[in-house]
Amino acid sequence: MAKFTQILEEKFMPIAGKVAGQKHLQALRDGIILTMPLIIIGSIFLIIGFLPFKGYPEFMAGLFGDAWLTKLLYPVTATFDIMALIAGFGIAYRLAEHYKVDALNAGAISVASFILATPYFTMFTPEGASEAIQVGGVLPIALLGSKGLFVAMILAMFSTELYRFIIQKNFVIKMPDGVPPSVSKSFVALFPAFIVILVVWLIRLLIENTSFETLHNVVGQLLQEPLGALGGSLIGALIAVFFVQLLWSTGLHGASIVGGVMGPIWLAATDANRVALTAGDELPNVVTQQFFDIFIYMGGSGATFTFALMMLFMARSQHSKTLGRLAIGPGIFNINEPITFGAPIVANPLLIVPFILAPLVLTITTYIGMSTGFAPKTAGVAVPWTTPPIIGGYLATGGNIRGALMQLINLAVSFAIYYPFFRMWDKQNYQVEQGVNK
Amino acid sequence: MNILLCCAAGMSTSLLVAKMETAAKAEGIEARIWAVSANEVNNHLDEADVLLVGPQVRYLLPQLKKKGQEKGIPVDAINPVHYGMCNGAEVLKFARNLIGS
Question: Cys staple from A429: which of A3, A181, A317, A390, with CB 3.0 to 4.6 Å?
Fold first, then answer.
């Protein structure tokens, strides 16, 4: 077992470090973060719009008129439905920072490239008509949201790479001396940006001649849908959780590293549920960002909330008691570094077992609970990962008490898994302390 | 003395900040201590005399050390055990040694 942790440290950690430090993945993660505050704010309006109380819609309609829901959801469109635009800007901005080229320009060019790859029409079926007609002068809002997320990600990277390449190769317009620096700066941005727009335009023209018609269809069918199916499956979720836990077992931030790769997939899954909720359709996805944040990682990665409770209330050793008092406060908000580094769990073969096992089992119980309808699926509400257990389950499912119940069941399961290991660990601590005191 | 700490979201590190502030006060040290997420470090580096990195994001250390070198400030990872037990006094000592060296 000691050898196992040594292998983790020596072989696994450098690879994980490389993945996490890779500049495109880092830009992806840091850029997408820009959408988070907005969709959390949008979620507040979403929850209010879909509280599952009997007679609630009628009550609201009586108070604010029949169009209450449409009006209430205005901010949802302005937050959720433009996440691809915002992410595209953010990713390009962060990537440009790495290359030390003008980040604001790179962000603007990325947004322009994204719009350039998006059709300027939508299909609309008028009442009584049998065939949809093409309506111009619009940008399809669905494509600016999670459906366009992957296109925005790809174009943000592509446009910024091309932009910085041209700048670094010095193919820029050189202004003669005497031109004010800010004037020359605005011209400097012009030539690389022109090339980027030119290339994306040619790509659009090219794709319009194929059966795909738009870049959104190419990326959707070849990338976003297959990846979504993979990341949304039970096996996909289990693999992701396993890696998160394995990374944390070496003391690396697993959720941040794995989330950097899987984040866009789960974000898109969250939003697909949100779209279905607002349209009154059945929610399509079990595995979403909130599936992990709220239902699996209660108390932090490793589902250590019950472990913190055990230390607080059931410990004999001084170390466990002290750590319990230290860990419970942050644990309520799903932060558990005091436990992972303080117990420690890192490089501790005894505690690594439940630390990896518990979240895997919870993934299975939650997946079964949600796919059989025993528990509600997450409703697209972007509940912050720091939301305490019970409250989190209630809010993430759009105000459903059975969401909180699912969390309670998961807490009981994680308690059962951690308990025997906690006893052994606490006893070891106790014996060491007694030995020292003698 | 300006001590900047960073981790993934700046949240767990903010726990340590509170403990370090208490320790600084007890020792009568005038210090500004604050925590940010890894992607915000750039905007705070100018104000810092030292950057301490949470052990869970130590994979960022090479990159952050390079940034620190450019600004001429020391950068290092926090001892995992001190980090876990929120040992403010020890981490403060570590920060002071880094600045001193």
Answer: A317
Residues B67 and A104: their CA atoms lie apart, in Å, by: 21
Question: Which of A349, A238, A345 is closest to A302 using CA atoms?
Answer: A345
Options B7, B17, B41, B95, the catalytic residue: B7
CB pairs under 8 A between A and B: 81
A438 pLDDT higher than 80? no
Spans of chain B, pLDDT less than 50: none
Give the strands of the sheet with B32-37, arranged side by side: B32-37, B2-7, B50-53, B75-77
For residue B80, list chain A residues with Cβ-Cβ distance below 8 A. Answer: 251, 341, 344, 346
Q: Which domains does chain B have, with CATH numbers?
A: 2-100 (3.40.50.2300)
pLDDT at A11: 79
Question: What gap in Å lies between CA A153 and CA A261, rounded to an integer?
Answer: 12
Give the sign of the dihedral formed by CA A347, CA A348, CA A353, CA A354. Answer: negative
Dist CA A282 CA A285 (whole Å): 9
pLDDT tens across A271-301, in order?
A: 999 999 999 899 999 999 999 999 999 999 9
Is B7 one of the catalytic residues?
Answer: yes
- Residue in chain A closest to B37 (alpha carbons) equals A30
Which of A4-13, A332-341, A381-390 shows the lowest per-residue confidence on average (mean pLDDT)?
A: A4-13
Identify which of A94, A251, A323 has the shortest CB distance to residue B56: A251
Its pTM stands at 0.86
For A12, phi then psi, to 5°, come to -80, -40
Q: From CA A122, how far away is CA A124, in angstroms rounded?
A: 6
| Cα(B60)–Cα(B82) distance, integer angstroms | 19
| Mutation to test the A interface, candidates B7, B12, B16, B19, most A Cβ within 10 Å | B12
Q: How many angstroms separate the CA of residue A373 from the nearest CA in chain B?
A: 34
Main-chain dihedrals φ then ψ at residue B36, nearest 5 degrees: -135, 165
Integer Cα distance of A265 and A287 in angstroms = 10
Q: Is the ipTM of this complex over 0.90?
A: no
Cβ(B84)–Cβ(A342) below 8 Å: yes
